[in-house]
Amino acid sequence: MHQNQFIPVTFLLKLSLPEETNLERWGKITALVLESYAKTLTKGEGVYIGHIKALFEGDGSDYIKLSIYKEDIPVGVEISGQNNYSTVQLTVNSIVCGVDEEMSLDTMRDVFNEYRNLLIDYEIESISKHHDDHHEHHDHHDHCDHR
Q: Where are the alpha helices (DSSP H) in 42-139?
């Protein structure tokens, strides 16, 4: 029996530029990265986005919130704050049908191979709570077709 699953994957994505820049520019950069990630993920057969969210929390009330739930629409971006940053760390929560943690992280690495000239550095760290003895899979018995 073929069964589709939404597997939540959470990871930290740290992005660095050689100089400090404002949150508006960071919003554009992170939206481009998230959109590329979503488009690359959904090239696979039977892969559908449930929801991909990312959050950067800076100093005080500074933040960037990003959200995408369909690969062919722009990323929703909400920005607050006036400070400049040379590094931002996003917490990314990716819930995509047909994609496990390894594929999510590999896909994000592939995206950065395309954008190495844009960013000086990036790091990805998994913080999903998936262990060999305790997988938290969210079965989706209906079809994952959210187009």
A: 101-114
